């Protein structure tokens, strides 16, 4: 009768290569993790930081332009209100108006390289057909009316469409629509080429 006898003297012969292989695998894994940490997306992070700084600078420039644009009418109205009656003092300052020019389809096509229909809100970067319909539901159907709309109103229009429209940022939409209404196609195209956050 032959019994299987395990020779304990031979165990180290197969155990040592197994342990060495296991240790090598663990060390390889740890070195790979360590090397991977040094190869993170720091370049991408720097790029996004620069973009963020640029956008903040643009925002501050827009805010300062808005302050100077509204400061002159406020100063003029406060001077006039000192010398006028109480009724004149209660007048509200009208918002800046848009100088609407006749639509020139050739100029629009020259700037954008495609035919643009008059008062098509989708020329504004970030507005697609579904968002255009939301604005139409609020009776905002022209570039001029969108140009005179506040960002808060644009946000309200987006909220009327539900959760899926909350990712959009309409901060630049009135400004873009104003450029379109004023026929400043070159400026609008240049702005859209330089900025991509209308679609965010």
TrEMBL record:
<keyword id="KW-0378">Hydrolase</keyword>
<feature type="coiled-coil region">
    <location>
        <begin position="45"/>
        <end position="72"/>
    </location>
</feature>
<keyword id="KW-1133">Transmembrane helix</keyword>
<dbReference type="GO" id="GO:0004519">
    <property type="term" value="F:endonuclease activity"/>
</dbReference>
<feature type="transmembrane region" description="Helical">
    <location>
        <begin position="14"/>
        <end position="32"/>
    </location>
</feature>
<keyword id="KW-0812">Transmembrane</keyword>
<keyword id="KW-0472">Membrane</keyword>
<keyword id="KW-0255">Endonuclease</keyword>
<keyword id="KW-0540">Nuclease</keyword>
<keyword id="KW-0175">Coiled coil</keyword>
<protein>
    <submittedName>
        <fullName>Predicted 5' DNA nuclease, flap endonuclease-1-like, helix-3-turn-helix (H3TH) domain</fullName>
    </submittedName>
</protein>
């Amino acid at each position: 009768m032959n019994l299987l006898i395990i020779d304990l003297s031979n165990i180290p012969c197969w155990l040592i290569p197994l342990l060495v292989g296991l240790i090598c695998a663990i060390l390889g894994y740890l070195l790979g993790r360590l090397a991977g940490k040094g190869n993170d997306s720091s370049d991408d992070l720097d790029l996004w930081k620069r973009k963020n700084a640029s956008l903040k600078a643009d925002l501050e420039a827009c805010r300062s332009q808005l302050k100077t644009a509204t400061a002159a009418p406020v100063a003029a109205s406060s001077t006039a209100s000192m010398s006028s009656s109480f009724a004149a003092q209660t007048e509200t300052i009208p918002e800046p108006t848009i100088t609407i020019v006749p639509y020139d389809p050739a100029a629009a096509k020259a700037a954008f390289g495609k035919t643009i229909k008059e008062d098509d809100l989708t020329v504004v970067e970030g507005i697609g057909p579904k968002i255009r319909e939301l604005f139409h539901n609020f009776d905002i159907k022209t570039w001029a009316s969108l140009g005179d709309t506040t960002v808060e109103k644009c946000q309200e229009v987006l909220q009327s469409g539900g959760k899926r429209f909350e990712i959009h940022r309409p901060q630049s939409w009135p400004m873009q629509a104003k450029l379109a209404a004023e026929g400043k196609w070159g400026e609008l195209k240049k702005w859209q080429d330089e900025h991509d956050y209308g679609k965010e």
